[in-house]
Amino acid sequence: MAVKIIDGGINAPEGFMAAGLRAGIKEGKTNKDMAMIYSTVPATIAGTFTRNLVKAAPVKWDSKVVFEEGSAQAVVVNVAIANASTGAPGFKDAEDTAAYTAESLGLKKENVLVASTGVIGFRLPMDKIKKGIDMLIPALSYDRQAADDCATAILTTDTHKKEIAVEFEIDGKKATIGAICKGSGMIHPNMGTMLSFITTDVAIDRDLLQKTLREVVSKTFNMVSVDGDTSTNDTCIILANGLLKNKKIEGESEDLEEFKAALYTACEYLAKNIAKDGEGATRLFTAHVTGAPDYETARILAKSIITSSLSKAAIFGRDANCGRIMCAMGYSGAEFDPEKTDISFSSSEGVIQVVKDGMNTDFSEEEALKILTPDEITAECDIKSGSAEATAWGCDLTYDYVKINADYRS
Amino acid sequence: MAVKIIDGGINAPEGFMAAGLRAGIKEGKTNKDMAMIYSTVPATIAGTFTRNLVKAAPVKWDSKVVFEEGSAQAVVVNVAIANASTGAPGFKDAEDTAAYTAESLGLKKENVLVASTGVIGFRLPMDKIKKGIDMLIPALSYDRQAADDCATAILTTDTHKKEIAVEFEIDGKKATIGAICKGSGMIHPNMGTMLSFITTDVAIDRDLLQKTLREVVSKTFNMVSVDGDTSTNDTCIILANGLLKNKKIEGESEDLEEFKAALYTACEYLAKNIAKDGEGATRLFTAHVTGAPDYETARILAKSIITSSLSKAAIFGRDANCGRIMCAMGYSGAEFDPEKTDISFSSSEGVIQVVKDGMNTDFSEEEALKILTPDEITAECDIKSGSAEATAWGCDLTYDYVKINADYRS
Questions:
Q1: Which of B309, B329, B396 is the best residue to mutate to test the A interface, defined by the most A CB atoms within 10 Å of its own CB?
Q2: pTM score, two decimals?
């Protein structure tokens, strides 16, 4: 059975409930700002976290839970305050959030994950957080609306929610993955994106789950950049509660391949949507590098292209400025032969080759403008030195990105 | 004698002439677009060039001249077309430019340096280049206006010329350095900035000149970033013609220290001005990192701060968002203890401490706004782990940066 996208959200897999609502964490902010995910039974967990040396308190707490406990039943999320650069008192706030939730749900605190996103350098308003938890627990539900509330509550400058649910077959049974995430600034993930939560009913060995998550994250979330700034709060967590009651996946097998394919589908979908909904973005800008001697070379080149401010500004201006792309490939650090490089731009309007063997083709500017007009543009770069390839997703650099970030805290 | 800034430009040192004029290389462009620097006697030369793998043709030609010949008498510069990604025909164009100039001046082509800046991927209009050379040679002059023309002719999106001349003492004689450069986009130099030319009448050993230039460039031009994009054309060349007739500087000595100090003064001045005049910039944004265990740690941290899109946008918005700075330090790759870090903002309006031991201080937003209003802002970061320090220069990220680069080629 192929992986199939279904209508559903984070509570689509068996035994998962969700909630999202407004707890009033930031004065004047009128949208939802707290969310909870709950599994009725203990779930095996895996996670990837930011490699930024300045790690937010919830990242420190969750690393402990993921790598020391390996099992959890609840995730509590707040927006508006990142609880980063808050020292030991901030870590205590994260721990207290877990403890307060655990007490109400009859769990131990080490089985509760917490996540925060927002402004760096400020303490959490713990009274409001606790009131939020008091409201979230009775709101937990299996219904579609609850999934929607949960996906919406974790957003900040995102313009739309990012969720997906997929069905696939494991051990002859219909398995499900649900996943949500948020962008949309300070996005240049290094071991997970800003905040992403994934649920599944599949039974899988803990180490294998961690290994699979890392592999999929490295090719999806870690290939996205909005602005080159790696956040202090990047977190991607998966909870696998095993309620599918499949024969537990414990090693290389068809079931593992099927699970990995489904997880890849979910993560790629979310990663692309983070890029497309990047702060101020008007276009999804994809770089697809082919003909590389190895994956690492292709990966470095693709990510350098979509991270370049100049390439991003050119895409905003619908300018087929292939020199910006050659330049970004050149300073990426990857080895390749510029004089063997071909570059084309493609979109729903067609394909146009702009560079052949490292030199501009005599392309039609009129045709190029037409192809660069739709809201999804791909730069196809063939370095003609092998068969490895990689894809990275970014967005254009716009006036609105500057506007959003010039006065982010107000 | 201390290093003294004097009124003068690239032809201030003995025996150097300059010229700048309009050769009409780009249709519709009305300002000057070609420049020439000439030494009446052969000059010892040294240079640093881009580390971008995609190197422009003039960079390849000049590398040959600098590292194989070590001596030159003339530099020819054009703007509008970068002569990058132009393959073997582009290299031939660079060589022909040198040969044509050499013939007219009675030199051999290997003693003529060439430099180009502008759009990547297009061939030079050689007929116009040759006509430009024909006009430049008779225009070469020792006068102040000629220096001004030369400094102006190499500009692209720069809003003002960048030139300096300094006097200092070598071997009991009054020595001079003249220097010019251009910015102002695709600026994230790695071994030299976009285009910088330095002249001096000092007699100095060739290897020592190269070593001294590298050292000074690494602490000045290489500490500037406008947009994180390392150009294909970065070039910094110094010509030392020895007409001061000082006892040649051949090793560690007071004279070498004096020369290095003078060169540092000139390069730091130009580097700061590139940052301040970055595309679309309204503010010079300096990061000064102190208390580091070694220079390298301080250097990586300082450069990461001024390269961060989010920090740059906050400076544009006069937002004392110290979380952006902590975040940029955290992902820089340098080792430091976030919980020992202090951060202050300073300007002509005063100083305000915003982070103490990694946590936000309870600073006055009103006071911070006042301090962030002038057009030169410094972030002072003390990591309290040693006595090494470094400075990096950048600019804010503004609507105009996006505007300039969204349709750069038009």
A1: B309
A2: 0.80
